[in-house]
From TrEMBL:
Stated name of the protein: Uroporphyrinogen decarboxylase
Domain Uroporphyrinogen decarboxylase (URO-D), first and last residues per copy: 6-329
Taxonomic superkingdom: Bacteria
GO MF term set: uroporphyrinogen decarboxylase activity
Organism: Maribellus comscasis
């Protein structure tokens, strides 16, 4: 059975002979060609060649066309900054800088980098008719936050009518882009909305559910499948995510896979995840990767489960580690051998000797990478903004778990989820971005 048909059966919760494998190859495709992220994401030929190399190496059942949550934001007026190893980062928010919502227009096929994505999709559809193509759109709430900035969290309470108008617009953008992707040949529309991890279920039902349901309903009318991607500590929202009626939800390592499995299957929805991106696939060994793959396969089970990383693969993810995952997907004997291996950790906690300074508050933010992860970016910005009131009394450090040193610091501080903010070694804010007043209050408490 080809990958597309296998995934379609999993989405329908039908019996399958094996679990499908969907590596989220984004800028990692650039690594396979030895080109940087900016060159890769701006050129259809590079993306097609990168995906083709990934297909050859990893034997996927499905694969995203382009993993870039800044495409729509850039078209709508957000300034972006490119880096060599990550998708671009949004660095301005037009609606907080005087631009009127009414002045924004829906994107067309000729705007921004959409032509690159459409050309790529058509080429991949022709080349790989048997592989499921995922078309990714920026979720309405994350796009709204790109346009308005963290001010949106205050407006949820102070001006919910405006937020509703903004969400209506962002939903229309999502439907428009989805239609382009489906018409070009995508099989699955993934609504990638990482910033929804920042709100509680009640706010989610008010400001997310009615909007993303429109997108999922649209995809269903087109007789295609949909997936709802979230990252971060979003465990509190899994049930309301399922109530939005996507065909699939996909989560990262911050949320226990068995927890998601129980809720998703009870609600008749398939689920995917949640291979550890950095500590295993990027920085671990082939043995680590095999163990992680088998652990996910065993916890996910054989019904309605798709094996995938928790988010897009870091650019420099080790090729051999992904090939090790591929082996576990296809080789039952190799899985049996891996299950008999003893569990060992590849990393030791970092020593905190000398890390804390007398008379100063040390704020440590554990992130995936604020240059590539939206929740991480906005948490770092919020902490830096709040701590600027205290001058040299406060030291702010970002520890990226894309680096071994970051993983060791995460272990030393006892952090379990990203992004997390610690103040003087104590976990203060987990995943959710706190208001500036709460950060200031926590810093003042640590100073006294």
């Amino acid at each position: 059975m080809d990958g597309l048909k296998l995934l379609e059966r999993v989405f329908r919760l039908e019996e399958v002979e094996r679990v499908p494998w969907v590596p989220f190859v984004g800028v990692h495709g650039g690594k396979l060609l030895n080109v940087d992220a900016e060159m890769y994401l701006k050129d259809s030929k590079y993306i097609v060649d990168g995906i083709s190399k990934a297909v050859e190496l990893y034997k996927p059942d499905g694969i995203p066309v382009a993993f870039d949550l800044q495409i729509e934001a850039e078209i709508l007026g957000c300034k972006i900054v490119w880096s060599k190893e990550n998708p671009p980062a949004v660095v301005s928010h037009p609606l907080s800088e005087g631009v009127e919502l009414a002045s924004l227009s829906l994107p067309t096929e000729n705007d921004g980098r959409i032509p690159v994505v459409i050309e790529t999709t058509k080429a991949l559809r022709h080349k790989y008719p048997e592989i499921a193509l995922y078309g990714l759109i920026t979720g309405p709430f994350t796009l709204a936050l790109h346009l308005l900035g963290t001010e949106i969290f205050m407006k949820l309470f102070e001006d919910p009518e405006y937020v509703g108008e903004l969400m209506d617009f962002c939903t229309d953008v999502g439907i428009k882009f989805s239609e382009m992707l489906l018409d070009a040949g995508c099989d699955i529309i993934a609504v990638v909305d990482p910033m929804t991890s920042q709100i509680d279920p009640e706010s989610f039902e008010t400001f997310v559910t009615p909007y993303v349901k429109k997108i999922f309903d649209f995809v269903r009318l087109k007789k295609k499948f949909s997936s709802f991607f979230v990252c971060g500590h979003a465990q509190q929202n899994i049930e309301v995510m399922c109530d939005c009626k996507p065909d699939n939800i996909s989560i990262d390592e911050n949320i226990p896979l068995d927890y998601v499995k129980d809720i998703a299957l009870q609600k008749g929805i398939s689920f995917g995840g949640n291979l550890k991106l950095t500590s295993v696939l990027l920085l671990g060994s082939e043995i680590d990767s095999k163990k992680e793959a088998v652990s996910c396969l065993d916890r996910g089970g054989e019904k309605g489960f798709i094996l995938a990383p928790g988010c897009d693969l870091p650019m420099n993810t080790t090729i051999e580690n992904l090939q090790a995952v591929t082996e576990m997907v296809y080789d039952d004997y190799a899985r049996q051998v891996t299950r008999k291996m003893e569990h060992t950790s590849s990393h030791d906690p970092k020593s905190l000797d000398g890390h804390f300074k007398d008379g100063k508050v040390v704020v440590d933010i554990i992130t995936l990478d604020s240059a590539s992860c939206a929740p991480c970016q906005y948490m770092v910005e919020a902490v830096q903004h709040a701590s600027s009131n205290f001058g040299e009394k406060v030291i702010v450090n970002e520890h990226k778990i894309k680096d071994i040193d970051g993983i060791r610091m995460m272990m030393a501080l006892g952090v379990k989820n990203v992004p997390t903010t610690c103040i003087n070694g104590k976990v203060e804010f987990i995943s959710q971005i706190p208001p500036k007043s709460e950060i200031i209050r926590a810093i003042k408490k640590a100073l006294n």
